[in-house]
């Protein structure tokens, strides 16, 4: 992915999804697709070509995705003679995820989930994410610079970068989905460089050992496995640490003052391992968080990109709803549909009111009412609209839009009710179980205040451990004398 100079034509990225059963050589496919595109003259960014009449390609290609014009994020209509197409041919892996296990004593713990990329599961994630800024293009540019600097062997003690990305923001704003989508995109775009690509999602919670002081060692073991993968230069390894605050909680908030708590050892281990991975050009660490205030500053400092993902604007909401309605039309649930304009078309005609724009303007009004809802909730609204107000296998577009409007209003009302505190709710500290005395060492699970009341925990978000296990008060239990297994239950 070398940068084009201003004298060259801009690069148009084109992804070709080859059928799994096809064995046609990639360069032959690229050549065929090039001929098709040259004959088209003009095309649109973010469009799919699914039909290839008279070429015999139908048997080999599922679709051609016309992606972005590099460094020209705003270009949507492309004269093919003015760009230089760059082709990527890929086939999807359908095997689903695998589990990477680590042994901890006698036990195997599921330390990570991994996918061979590009995975069928993540296809279309990238296209279906809508953001108000060019976040996706910026992430791709970051990777281009990373590759360029690695290729030119830039001295890392002069200019340094850590290959760590942190996506943060409120719940349901697409952080995890964007991380997986980026991993998938890189596996497609970097295919000429790497023979294999895999995404390893670290299961942070399982790395917290039930044995005091062992969690840091588990983290180290996990990263040793990752390093083994990364040592193969033909393999691209994308590591996802979702909800990274659980592995990198601020050390200042989790030390008990005397000896380093288990959580501190975990943070130290993560930081050391990240520093060791940074020398490998074929490894990228993707992390997400919705409570960044609790993350250790040394980790935040290591992230090259700290990208905030916020709640979608009215325009982004319109696009998300638009894609939902197109899907319901494709599957025959919305029938006899009037034309729904894209956001770009509506903007071009300055939202002019007429009979043909009526349904689109109604959808825009619903988008406006939906401001404040997360991407996750927005993608649920069409489902709720149908479940609560339609009850029929087929529906007209107008009826569906009215149902959506009601579903949005219900969602907003329900949220309001939930955000009011309920007097019956127990304080959070009461939810932490008291460990069995046999597993307890001093000090007791929570210090008592002078008036003998257990002080409440500061808040859930600053509690450094996977809830609800106060690990640092545990030590390995002594062997339990005369422990016999429970009698087998007789089948009779
Ligand atoms: N900007 C967006 N555009 C389109 N869909 C979105 C957007 N944001 C979220 N979604 C959808 O919402 C769902 C949840 O997204 P995701 O799990 O990635 O959110 P998250 O930010 O990781 O949330 P959390 O902080 O709760 O883990 C996904 O189906 C995703 O496609
Ligand atoms: Mg998430």
Automatic annotation (TrEMBL):
Task: Say which domain of life the source belongs to.
Answer: Eukaryota
Q: Which GO terms describe its cellular component?
A: chromosome; nucleus
- Looking at the record, the residues that make up the AAA+ ATPase domain are 161-313
Q: What's a single GO BP term from this record?
A: meiotic recombination checkpoint signaling
Biased composition regions of type Pro residues, renumbered to the chain: 442-458
Q: Which Pfam families match?
A: AAA, AAA_lid_TRIP13_C, TRIP13_N
The species this protein belongs to is: Penaeus vannamei
UniProt xrefs under CDD domains: RecA-like_Pch2-like
Q: Where is this region: Disordered?
A: 416-462
Name assigned to this protein: Pachytene checkpoint protein 2 homolog
Family from the record:
Belongs to the AAA ATPase family. PCH2 subfamily.
Q: Which molecular function terms from Gene Ontology are attached? A: ATP binding; ATP hydrolysis activity; identical protein binding
Xref: Gene3D superfamilies: P-loop containing nucleotide triphosphate hydrolases
């Amino acid at each position: 992915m070398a940068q084009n100079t201003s004298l060259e034509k801009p690069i148009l990225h084109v992804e070709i999804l080859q059928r799994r059963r096809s064995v046609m050589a990639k360069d032959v496919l690229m050549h065929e697709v090039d001929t098709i595109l040259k004959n088209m003259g003009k095309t649109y960014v973010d469009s799919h070509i699914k039909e290839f009449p008279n070429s015999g390609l139908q048997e080999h290609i599922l679709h051609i995705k016309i992606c972005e014009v590099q460094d020209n994020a705003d270009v949507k209509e492309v004269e093919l003679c003015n760009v230089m197409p760059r082709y990527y041919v890929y086939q999807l892996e359908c095997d689903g995820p695998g589990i990477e296990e680590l042994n901890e004593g006698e036990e195997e713990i599921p330390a990570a989930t991994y996918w061979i990329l590009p995975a069928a599961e993540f296809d279309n994630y990238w296209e279906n994410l809508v953001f108000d800024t060019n976040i996706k293009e910026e992430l791709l540019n970051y990777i281009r610079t990373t590759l360029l600097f690695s290729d030119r062997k830039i001295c890392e003690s002069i200019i340094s970068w850590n290959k760590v990305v942190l996506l943060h923001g409120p719940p349901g704003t697409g952080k995890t989905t964007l991380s997986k989508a980026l991993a998938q995109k890189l596996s497609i775009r970097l295919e000429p460089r790497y023979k294999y690509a895999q995404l390893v999602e670290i299961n942070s919670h399982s790395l917290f050992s039930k044995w005091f002081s062992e969690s840091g060692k588990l983290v180290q073991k996990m990263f040793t496995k990752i390093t083994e993968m990364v040592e193969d230069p033909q393999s691209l390894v994308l590591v996802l640490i979702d909800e990274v605050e659980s592995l990198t909680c601020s050390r200042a908030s989790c030390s008990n003052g005397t000896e380093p708590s288990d959580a501190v050892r975990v943070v130290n281990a993560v930081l050391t391992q990240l520093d060791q991975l940074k020398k490998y050009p074929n490894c990228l660490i993707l992390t997400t968080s919705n409570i960044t205030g609790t993350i250790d500053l040394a980790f935040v400092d290591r992230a090259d990109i700290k990208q905030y993902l916020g709640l979608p604007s009215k325009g982004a909401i319109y696009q998300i709803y638009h894609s939902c309605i197109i899907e319901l039309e494709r599957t025959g649930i919305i029938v006899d549909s009037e034309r729904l304009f894209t956001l770009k078309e509506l903007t071009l005609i300055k939202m002019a009111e007429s009979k043909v724009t009526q349904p689109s303007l109604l959808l825009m009004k619903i988008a406006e009412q939906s401001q404040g809802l997360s991407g996750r909730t927005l993608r649920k609204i069409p489902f709720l609209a149908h479940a609560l107000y339609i009850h029929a296998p087929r529906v007209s577009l107008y009826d569906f839009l009215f149902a959506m409007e009601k579903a949005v209003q219900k969602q907003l009302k329900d949220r309001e009710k939930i955000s009011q505190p309920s007097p019956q709710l127990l304080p959070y500290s009461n939810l932490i179980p008291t460990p069995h005395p046999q597993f307890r060492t001093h000090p007791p699970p929570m210090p008592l205040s002078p008036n003998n009341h257990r002080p409440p925990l500061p808040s859930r978000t600053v509690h450094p451990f996977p809830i609800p296990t106060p690990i640092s008060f545990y030590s390995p239990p002594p062997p339990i004398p005369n422990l016999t297994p429970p009698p087998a239950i007789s089948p009779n």
